[in-house]
Amino acid sequence: MNKKDVFCLLAYLLQYPQADWIDPEELRREAENWEEGDTRSRLNLFVDYLQSAPLNVLQENFVETFDFSKKTTLYLLYPQYGEEPKRVEVLQELIQEYQKAGLLIGQELPDYLPLVLEALSNVAIDRGRIILKPVYAGLQYLHDQLVKMNSPYALLLEVCLSSIHSLFGEIGGVTAT
After folding, report:
1. The Cα angle at residue 29 between residues 73 and 168, in degrees rounded to 5
2. Which of 78, 79, 102, 108 is the most exposed, fewest CB within 10 Å of its CB?
3. pLDDT single digits (tens) 163-177
4. Among 78, 140, 132, 71, residue whose Cα is nearest residue 109
């Protein structure tokens, strides 16, 4: 399986849980296709989480985790810039990078993690590094906050950071970990 495929799967799993969401057993079969044991085991642990609660509880957890906390927002530039004008500048630069890559971003801001992950699955390595550079610190921060909360979503961020490291290496002077 292509290493970039994991970004599509993560983008999907980091969206609001829906009734017609992927069947957990299908996801478990998907996880078995990954060569990396850590990726496979983390995805399987996340499937265990999905199977442990009814949809409404999964939805409540998602909202509480990502929508009600500035520390765990899926908008990766927010922790660094908040509402500062500099954030708008960086968002505009990201939009330009998406456009250069021929990607459409629709209604979402370009620092929205599922959108970033979809972009990474569709761009060349050099373009991916450019897209990652302004959001990488926010990605690491989000991971750290989810770990502190003992959130099951930390598993997905661990897969994300590991996959970024293996595909993109150093991001703006910081080695992806």
Report:
1. 50
2. 102
3. 999 888 877 555 444
4. 78
What's the token pair of residue 20? 């017609």
Q: Contacts from 17-22 at CB under 8 Å and sequence distance 24+?
A: 17/50, 17/55, 17/58, 17/59, 17/62, 19/55, 21/55
Pick the closest to residue 38 from 165, 169, 125 (CA basis).
165
- Residue type present at position 138: G
3-state helix, strand, coil in the chain (%, to 5): 65, 5, 30
Structure token digits, residue 38: 């850590």
Overall pTM surpassing 0.85 (yes/no): yes
Give me the amino acid identity at 85.
P
